[in-house]
Amino acid sequence: MSGRMRSTTGPRWTARLRLRGSRRRLGVAQALGLVAAATTSAVVLAAVLVTLTDPRVFPNLGVALWWAATTITTVGYGDVVPLSAIGRAVGAVLMFGGVGALAFVTAIAASSIVVGEVEEEEREIEAYERRLARRLDRLETRLARIERLLRAPGPDGRDRVANSGS
To answer: Among positive and negative, which fits the CA dihedral 45, 47, 51, 53?
Structure first.
């Protein structure tokens, strides 16, 4: 759980510690949208770059977009390929980007499962903290009563705390 510790006071002096997320979590749809936007941007950018680096092989943006889409998905039909070193470098970056995007989508799926489990654990921990705080408050009340009794004069009129040797 990422977060910072924050002390909040309970009904009395009892301090309860709570973990609070210091940043907002992306939802699954937002994360997938981010991957889709990044992937689409990468395809369009790569297509534009190869039309500039290899204009004979990629005479128009349509052919370049086809190549970029098949490359980023790591299908790579081989019907069109860049011939220049810069064009091949663009292709290599695009291939690794495709693998990275797939890994990111897998991480999003795993994260959504884990986040659900963590939220359930957080609810259980918060319930446990509330029970502990109530118990500590009861103990504080009992301790305060004991301290009052100890400070009250004894049957002989002397202070009980002074008589206890403490």
So the answer is: positive
Report how many helices (DSSP H) and strands (DSSP E) the chain contains, helices first.
Answer: 4, 2
DSSP H or E segment with residue 156: none
31 contact partners, CB below 8 Å, separation of at least 6: 108, 111
55 and 47 Cβ atoms separated by less than 8 Å: no
Percent of the chain whose predicted confidence (pLDDT) is above 90? 47
In this structure, the strands spanning 4-9 and 15-20 are antiparallel
Q: Report yes or no: 18 and 44 within 8 Å, Cβ to Cβ.
A: no
For 98-111, write each residue's pLDDT tens digit.
Answer: 999 899 888 888 88
